[in-house]
Amino acid sequence: MDIKQIQELIKFVSRSGVNEVSLEQENFKITIKTNQNPVYVNAAIPTQVPAAAAPAATVAAPAPVAAAPAAPAASTASEDTSKYITIKSPMIGTFYRSASPEKPSFVNVGDEIGTGKVVCIIEAMKLFNEIESEVSGRIVKILVDNASPVEYDQPLFLVEPI
Questions:
Q1: Which of 11, 19, 113, 150 could be joined to 89 by an S-S link, Cβ 3.0–4.6 Å?
Q2: pLDDT by residue (tens digit) across 98-149?
Q3: d(CA 32, CA 7)
Q4: For residue 93, which of 122, 131, 132, 126 has the smallest C-alpha distance?
């Protein structure tokens, strides 16, 4: 990884609102941390990417303030989604439901998930980030199509708590 790629990664981290990102390649490890307070979408769903301990490059960036609605965004007049928890994207990137096209999806509608279960992958700057659930429940609705671009804080799944 050259200095230009590191600078691009630092810019991406500061724009995305993520507090910490770790990258590990063959003989190279980097962790980028921001000095901003964690942003929580819902008390049960922190929007942080887990990271391993590694040498750190610290970046001071202003915290982007995102409006976090209390109710899920994907509701229609005929269904009441207020009882569901929304799993939101912790970063900007491309959403994938499986590890590769020939592999099965991580989760489908009706699947029960637990805390720490991988629900999707978001690719950002050629890095594939496994997104783990912070809640236990049953997947009610998948709100994003496979291989679609997603924004920071965009709803991905509706989960019925169990």
A1: 150
A2: 999 999 999 999 999 999 999 999 999 989 999 999 999 999 999 999 999 9
A3: 11
A4: 122
Ramachandran bin of 90, using left for φ above 0, alpha for ψ from -120 to 50, beta for the remaining angles:
alpha
Residue 139 and residue 118: Cα distance in Å, rounded? 13
For the cut 60, the answer to whether the pLDDT of residue 76 exceeds it is: no
Q: Which residue has the tokens 């991905």?
A: 156
The secondary structure of 68-99 as a DSSP string is --SS-S---TT---TTSEEEE-SSSEEEESSS
Domains of the chain: 3-59 (no CATH), 85-161 (2.40.50.100)
Find out whether 15 and 92 touch, Cβ atoms under 8 Å. Answer: yes
9 membership: H or E segment, kind and range:
helix 3-16
Section 49-72 average pLDDT: 43
Q: Is the pTM of this model over 0.70?
A: no
For 91-149, the DSSP string reads SSEEEESSSSTTSPPS--TT-EE-TT-EEEEEEETTEEEEEEPSS-EEEEEE-S-TTEE
